[in-house]
Amino acid sequence: MAFPTIGFVFVFLPVSILLFYGAPKKLKTPVLLAVSLLFYTLLDPTNLLLMLLSISYDYLMAFLILKAKKDVSMRKLPLMACVLKNLLMIVVFGLQQQLYDIPVPVGLLIYTLTAMGYVIDVYRGDEPFEKNWFNFALFCTFFGKIIAGPLVQYSDMRQDIVFRKPSLSGISNGMVLFVSGLAKQLILAESAADMYRMLLTIPRESLSVVSVWLLVLSFTFDLYFTLSGYWDMARGLALIFSMRLPENCHYPFQSRTVSDFFNRFNITVTQYANRYVYVILGGDTNGRMSTILNTLLTAMLLGLWFGIRLNYLLWGVYFALLMLLERYLLLKLLLRVPVLFTRMYTFCAVLLSFTIFASDTLGQAVFYLKSMFGLGELPWFNGYASYILSSNIPILLVCFFALTSLGSLLTRELHRRHPALSDLGAVIYNVGLLTVSASLML
To answer: SS3 for 265?
Structure first.
């Protein structure tokens, strides 16, 4: 049962809310954990036990670290056992998917990396040991984030889990955020996906430079609004259940540099990689060569977040090279260039990177890149491109608008000048989004 389904929106979610708010204060965490486990069971019943065993194992390792106190060697042993177990799970299941087409368990990266990060923090003394297993299990498996994140630290959720403060404003804000994410997926992502599938049906010899650009652009919109929609829904669900999750996407296509793009897109994963990989390896404190190697490794891991595939690895390498180029050669120049042009540069650099994502093979990615710059034998424009472009102009314009913060700025300005009118418009807008989304789900 995924979020954008009639069963989830109109059955599972309302029943879960009633159970949660009808439960006594001491039972709210166990109830929400039970709801999360039921949700996971509906998604991937064969791997529920694996998830519970995995997080319980990590919880035990954190407990052993606590018991070892100041004995360094005894503290390192459970830490290494935790890291080894989680990395083995990720690699083994990732390779099984590539070699034998066996699906990776739902949420594997989320619950393994979440628990592993917590154990590392307990070892460092950055987080206290959580004595209540139910609190820890909810932190790892909360159904709002189990599919696609965000990837959180325990400090991000501990206060809300241990000291709950439900509020009507939190519920209403959560519902608005959830509906926004739902609409992103069902309206924007699905429309872009329809356009992408249409372009894929065109024979290679009938493509044009414009149609290849449209193909990569529609793929990028599909991926971005799918992920952004999931993250909005996750944050919305957390607010509904009196918790807060960190923002995982902040208008990344308005970034002035590629480095800034990574600070705005999949934010929590970037922070996780920096905290537990880049910094541990020495970051930028051991000279230029060390910085280059650490940046390269971290970016490659960010690419592998999407799966164990050569394409994703190369995607990370591509961004590592651009970030290093900016750091050592281009940064001063980019800071002097008008914002409009630096944003255009970043948008194009990011868009070109998604030729790697949109391709099944490296050869196909090379073909797309050559075609986009007119280096192949494809015409610049033809009838196919004309038809697809003309029939999709409205959705392309809406997608471009949704990439920017312009809508948020206009809404705030309207609320400042005409608060009553702004509130009425917000109600109509959100009801309209929910109505359209429900009709699409049907």
So the answer is: strand
Token pair for 4: 């954008």
Residue 261 to residues 116, 256, 272, 309, 338: CA-CA distances in angstroms? 26, 8, 16, 22, 17
Q: Per residue in 47-56, pLDDT tens?
A: 999 999 999 9
Residue percentage of the chain with pLDDT more than 70: 100
At a CB cut-off of 8 Å and minimum separation 6, what does 71 contact?
none
Instruction: Read off the tokens for 180.
Output: 């926004």
Q: 207 to each of 184, 237, 356, how far by Cα in Å? A: 29, 43, 18
- pTM value is 0.93
Please classify residue 32 by burial: count the beta carbons closer than 10 Å to its beta carbon, then call 0-12 exposed, 13-18 middle and 19+ buried: buried
The separation between CA 416 and the C-alpha centre of its own chain, rounded to angstroms, equals: 32
Contact criterion met (CB below 8 Å) for 240 and 166: no
- Amino acid at residue number 255: S
Distances in whole angstroms, Cα of residue 236 to Cα of each of 194, 316, 351? 27, 30, 28
What string of DSSP letters covers 364-420?
Answer: HHHHHHHHHTT-SS--S--HHHHHHHHHHHHHHHHHHHHTSSHHHHHHHHHHHH-HH
Instruction: State the DSSP code for 106.
Output: T
What is the rounded CA–CA span in Å between residue 151 and residue 129?
19
